[in-house]
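Researcher: Quick test of sequence recovery. Tokens follow.
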């Protein structure tokens, strides 16, 4: 299935508690929108024409994900209240960062669904599950003979699995997705749904180490707060030149600390990140304002603080693989 419209996703079996879908996308925003019941925003941080793929399986109380892209991407948004996510980036070549924490090849990301902030490197693939609170709570109690979830599950945290556990989990997750792609009739069988759901969720839980260390979280969160406050200020003033000193003055930090926090949390300098976010903003506006026959590239570029049209067009083409005029023309066609 190839995404074509701003409302691209309809489950193949509407009305049933379980469904499976796989598709490719050449548009980053449609890629983000194609995950139902979730509110996601993606920014492309590396250059080139975007190409991504998503595979989703919805089982009762749990969704399985396999997602990849050829570009470095920052994902932010919500996966639903009273939901928890477990995910890995098994074969990363470059920085993968979850809520300000860098991932090693065998790391597992765990967090509440209300707040997602994930940076994935180019040419990487993510696997994961998102599970409802009541299902996770019941299974947790059964496995650990105690009531209530562990307190650290309320954090956004990275834990280190063993190499063997991570490999086994990765292989099983992909094997189940492939099984359901080849035998979709299993999704019409309530018993099979439950067995598959419980099997994959148990594997994710058992891959978590017995001891989870949260001692570094407060320090990570402090650095991320600096980045979040700086981003908020920069985006609120996206149409005017903003210097590092302006940002530091507004949020009360030093240029050295600002640069350190950005490179640690996002793997990029504040100046470079702002420019990339502004370019992504122009691209969204070029597409979303296609209905306005009066909208011109230079008007939208100026709204995001790009005043030299020639330099802007070169940067835009380098980042997205096409001229801004082509984006606007394609959106109107």
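Model:
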């Amino acid at each position: 299935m190839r995404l074509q419209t701003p409302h691209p996703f309809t489950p193949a079996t509407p009305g049933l508690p379980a469904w499976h879908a796989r598709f490719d996308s050449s548009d980053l925003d449609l890629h983000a929108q194609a995950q139902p019941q979730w509110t996601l925003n993606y920014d492309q941080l590396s250059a080139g024409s975007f190409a991504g793929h998503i595979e989703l399986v919805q089982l009762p109380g749990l969704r399985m994900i396999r997602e990849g892209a050829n570009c470095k991407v920052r994902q932010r948004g919500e996966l639903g209240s009273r939901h928890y996510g477990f995910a890995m980036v098994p074969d990363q070549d470059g920085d993968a960062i979850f809520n300000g924490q860098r991932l090693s090849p065998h790391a597992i990301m765990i967090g509440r669904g209300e707040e997602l902030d994930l940076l994935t490197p180019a040419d990487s693939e993510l696997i994961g599950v998102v599970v409802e609170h009541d299902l996770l709570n019941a299974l947790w109690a059964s496995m650990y003979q105690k009531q209530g979830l562990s307190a650290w599950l309320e954090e956004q945290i990275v834990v280190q699995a063993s190499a063997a556990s991570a490999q086994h989990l990765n292989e099983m997750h992909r094997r189940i997705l492939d099984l359901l792609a080849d035998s979709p009739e299993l999704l019409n069988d309530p018993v099979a749904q439950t067995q598959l759901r419980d099997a994959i969720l148990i594997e994710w839980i058992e891959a978590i180490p017995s001891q989870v260390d949260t001692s570094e979280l407060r320090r990570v969160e402090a650095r991320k707060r600096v980045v979040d406050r700086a981003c908020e200020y920069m985006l609120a003033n996206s149409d005017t030149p903003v210097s590092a000193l302006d940002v530091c003055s507004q949020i009360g930090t030093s240029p050295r600390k600002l640069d350190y926090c950005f490179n640690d949390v996002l793997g990029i300098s504040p100046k470079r990140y702002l420019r990339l976010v502004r370019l992504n903003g122009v691209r969204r506006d070029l597409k979303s304002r296609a209905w306005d026959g009066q909208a011109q590239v230079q008007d939208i570029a100026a709204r995001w603080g790009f005043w030299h049209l020639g330099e802007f067009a070169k940067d835009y083409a380098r980042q997205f693989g096409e001229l801004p005029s082509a984006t606007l023309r394609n959106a109107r066609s």
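The mean pLDDT is 88.
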